[in-house]
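This section describes the prediction task in plain terms. A model, or a person checking by hand, is given the sequence of a single protein chain and must write out its three-dimensional structure as a string of tokens. No templates, partner chains or ligands are provided. The sample shown here is typical of the held-out split.
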Amino acid sequence: MSTRRLAAAAMTAAGMMALAGAAEAQGAAGRDQPLRPTGNIPPADQPLIRRIPEPTVAVEGGFGVLGYVGGAAGIGPSWNVRVTGSMSPRVAVEANYTGSVNQRTIEGKSLLMTSLDAGLRYNILRADEAIVQPFVVGGVGYIGWAGRGGDAFAVSVPLTAGVERLVTRNVKVGARFNFRPAFFDDLTIGGVTNRTGGDSWSLLAHGGGAF
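The expected answer:
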């Protein structure tokens, strides 16, 4: 074999060894790199859901006292059941049932109130801005009274101010003050000359679950 052929063979062998070494180094580097999922899916050691969404629906019950502005009856116990649906951190809608039983100031008879209404709620602060969340609510609905001198049908425009907060992720507590003007109402007992209306106020503490 000539000297030229020996030199060419040696150069070819050296080049192949260099290529093999580079391929081995690249393979080792690839083995050291963890495989990453493609797209926006995180790897298996990270959660798919990075943030748990805040509750959007709440079902609550409340209990407190209710009184009449015009003196139709004395202060008595009141109760409330409410469903709230959040549309944004500031705005929510509410559906309310409110009841109460009060002793009339004349003849000592009881007056049973039933109210059904829907309202629009505005959160003055977002839930993450303070230790309690203040809010106001305005609505419209039905109100009726059973008992001596009651009125089976009237229209109410409840106005509410209150505060609430989450205790756990799914339990919330709060309190609210309601002023409930009534229209087309008449709670006058026969024989009384002064007309008696059904405007009322209530103070309720409430609690329930948020989902």
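For orientation: Residues 3-32 form the longest helix (30 residues).
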